[in-house]
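Hi F.,

I've been meaning to write this up properly since the lab meeting, where we talked about keeping a consistent format for the predictions we share between groups. The idea is simple: the sequence comes first, exactly as it goes in, then the structure tokens exactly as they come out, then a line or two of notes. No screenshots and no reformatting. I'm using this chain as the first example so we have something concrete to point to.
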Amino acid sequence: MKGDIQKSLEIYKEQLSDGFIQTAYVVLTKYVAELKGKFPPSYSTSNIGFGYLDYTYFYFTNDYVKNKNLKFALVLNHKKMQFELWLCARTADIRKQYWNLLKDSKWNKNIEAMPKYSILEVIIEIQIDFNAKEKMTSNIINNAVSSALEIENCLQILGC
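Output, unedited:
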């Protein structure tokens, strides 16, 4: 499937012709921008990264994580159609260092190898439902902030 680029392009063109993918993508990316705009002022946020139809995200930091060369990412995982919180590092070496500290944490339970882009990943909203948008938005923001604070507390306990 992945090897036949011409077949992939034909399927892509066919899927785009009905307009559903474009509509969904625009709605989802605008929603990520809306979440960014509603994020608590105690965190600074980055521009939105649009990925390759795989992830749409923005980073957020405070002084504590920034001083550790870390950052959080609020991530829309397009394939799983869920929101996740990722703890990320400024460089690959820093990511590996913190992976070694946190690989046995509750967030990495049953994770054998370091994730490709992050140190740890937490699912914060598994059901995207625009029929309950206000509740969903509140859940995403509250779960992201509370999970970030819990991770920060863990890092402080570990002496990081």
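Notes:
The longest strand covers residues 70-77.
The chain has a mean pLDDT of 94.

If this format works for you, I'll send the rest the same way.

G.
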